[in-house]
Automatic annotation (TrEMBL):
Belongs to the nitroreductase family. This is Nitroreductase domain-containing protein. One of its GO terms (biological process) is tyrosine metabolic process. GO terms for molecular function: iodotyrosine deiodinase activity; ribonucleotide binding. Keywords: Flavoprotein, FMN, Membrane, Oxidoreductase, Transmembrane, Transmembrane helix. PANTHER family: IODOTYROSINE DEIODINASE 1, NADPH NITROREDUCTASE. Its cofactor is FMN. The chain crosses the membrane at residues 16-33, 220-245. Gene3D superfamilies: NADH Oxidase. Residues 107-276 form the Nitroreductase domain. It comes from Pieris brassicae. GO terms for cellular component: plasma membrane. InterPro entries: Nitroreductase, Nitroreductase-like, Nitroreductase/BluB.
């Protein structure tokens, strides 16, 4: 009888004993490793009591250099003097009148693609750029660069780059729906206005800048800061009687940046041909969205009237110290409104 036969005979003859031994080994193994896991969990728990600076910073904006005392220098001096702010004081009537006048002026703003070649006085260009530079920015880092181009040769070089890229954009890069959406505006890859307009303003966004000590200075919210500055620039152009085309040259950033010798931390956001409109300029007959489609008025945080809550008109009058009123909605009424301060038509 060989060893294998003896083993099989022993297992068959002592099944209960064998299974009992195996069960005991399994239980001992489980208890042992359970204790090991418990000890390990306790150790992990102890380490969690120590602040994890890396996990705490994972949602932070900017690099994790807070351990470097030389890095923690504010973008502007910490001891910057705070001075009294005394804006122009106007009566409510004047405020309303100026708001209407400004709207009437801005409502006439249109994007044009045909420019007169009549030159723009240099002072006008400087003033509208200075106006754009008054925009707010994150931590006052002012992350914008406005490049003004008037030289015919440079304008032609810009046009060549843009048209080369636009040929590819219209042929391959842009979706068919995108191209279809542009058809009412009669746009294509030809951009003669880049040479016709007396001036081009290229708006670059600075992702960061460098400090005097060679360290990087972060530009917080640089996208929205530059967008605000560009909006102010467009209103300044409109205010002084000029027109512009708000173009965003797709895939032209690197080539135009190199052409204009801009650093790698700058990215082209807008290319604005500006000037006076050509005498034969036409624009699409468009309508802008009415106010009720672009503004939602939230009154004192109360429930909207359509949810069966308060009457926004009466409550607004109440919180502003207005005239006496009687409205079922304020008292928790339903759809039947009886209001002395507004008519029922406004409750729909």
């Amino acid at each position: 009888m060989n060893a294998i036969s003896v083993t099989v005979w022993a297992l068959e003859s002592h099944c209960f004993l064998v299974y009992s031994v195996l069960a005991a080994i399994f239980i001992a193994f489980t208890v042992f490793h359970k204790n090991r896991l418990h000890v390990l969990e306790n150790r992990i728990g102890d380490t969690k009591k120590v602040p994890n600076v890396y996990s705490a910073r994972k949602d932070r904006e900017g690099p994790d250099d807070e351990d470097d005392p030389d890095y923690l220098i504010s973008a502007i001096p910490e001891d910057t003097l705070h001075v009294p702010y005394k804006p122009l004081q106007m009566s409510t009537k004047e405020v309303i009148q100026r708001s209407r006048e400004y709207y009437d002026l801005m409502a006439k703003r249109r994007t044009v693609r045909s420019f007169s070649t009549e030159p723009i006085p240099p002072e006008v260009l400087e003033n509208i750029i200075k106006t754009a530079g008054t925009a707010p920015s994150g931590a006052h880092t002012e992350p914008w660069t406005f490049v003004v181009v008037q030289d015919p040769n440079v304008k032609e070089a810009i046009r060549n780059i843009v048209e080369e890229e636009e040929d590819l954009n219209y042929a391959r890069r842009m979706s068919r729906q995108w191209v279809a959406d542009l058809k009412p505006f009669a746009t294509n890859s030809s951009k003669p206005y880049l040479c016709d307009a007396p001036a081009l303003i290229l708006v670059f966004r600075q992702t960061h800048s460098m400090r005097e000590d060679g360290k990087k200075r972060m530009h917080y919210y640089n996208e929205i800061s530059v967008a605000i500055a560009a909006g102010i620039l467009l209103t300044a152009i409109q205010y002084c009687g000029l027109v512009a085309l708000t173009s965003t040259p797709l895939n032209c950033n690197a080539r135009l940046r190199d052409l204009l010798s801009r650093p790698s931390n700058e990215r082209l956001e807008l290319l604005l041909p500006i000037g006076r409109p050509h005498p034969d300029t036409t624009v699409p007959d468009l309508e802008r969205k009415p106010l009720d489609q672009i503004m939602i008025k939230v009154t004192s945080g109360l429930n909207d009237i359509h949810s069966g809550g308060f009457c926004v008109f009466c409550v607004d009058s109440f919180f502003s110290g207005g005239v006496d009123y009687s409205c079922d909605a304020v008292a928790g009424g339903g759809a039947d409104y009886n209001c002395a301060c507004v008519d029922d038509a406004k409750h729909t």
